[in-house]
Amino acid sequence: MLLKGKTALVTGSTSGIGLGIALSLARQGANIVLNGFGDIETPKAQVAALGVRVGYHGADMSKAADIEAMMAYVDAEFGGCGILVNNAGIQHVAPVESFPTERWDAIIAINLSSAFHTTRLALPGMQARGWGRILNIASVHGLVASAQKSAYVAAKHGLVGFTKAVALETATSPVTVNAICPGWVLTPLVQKQVDARAAADGVDNEEAKRRLLMEKQPSLQFTTPEQLGELAVFLCSDAASNVRGQSWALDGGWTAQ
Description:
The protein is α/β, with parallel strands linked by helices and about 260 residues long. The protein has two domains: about 5-185 and about 225-250, 3-Layer(aba) Sandwich (Rossmann fold); about 185-220, no CATH class. It is about 45% helix and about 15% strand. The protein contains eight helices and seven strands. The chain has helices at about 15-25, 40-50, 65-80, 100-130, 150-170, 190-200, 205-215, 225-235; strands at about 5-10, 30-35, 55, 85, 130-135, 175-180, 245-250. It has a seven-stranded parallel sheet, sandwiched between helices. Helix 6 packs across helix 7.
């Protein structure tokens, strides 16, 4: 129970990577504040079954006022945020010349700007309480690029840079700031790309998954939300207290090429 008594806010955590991280932190005793859309009751029940307190706030992560209200909720109901996991993200795939401007704005707002707003609001309390962990869930696309994902790549590169800057600002403090950079993880977001590949290539879902992995991920295995959750636990531990400003790839060898 490494994290007993701590409170973790995980944005975009009602499914996929965010929920996997929330469950891993809860297994170590952290109270959890979930955020996201869709089915709320199932993830809340999954977290509560681990014997910790669970809260929820439905902030739209593209809106600064919503984020401010969510952070105020964490302060009021849980006494502040000790662990902040900036995970919320959306994707859109299109060539830059036909990329919808409203999709660009939404991706930058949710994938990048939201981390600025949560961090600026969480950091003073972490400093005052003498402990904190900020984990930004970036992507291999924060380290390398892929075609037709200009907004996502720009946002994730920005999140890696933001991580480094805030890590330097907090380098002598008891607050650490790091990024996790997953490769392909079979989340609902990626499943949509698998479905599109299957339809375009005229193949079944399993073959579409294999083709997707073959292009980028040498292990030919998807990274799992559980693996990302265990990495998050390590980065929250005392053993990682001097890991600062890092962008940790968990990508099956993608960025080793």
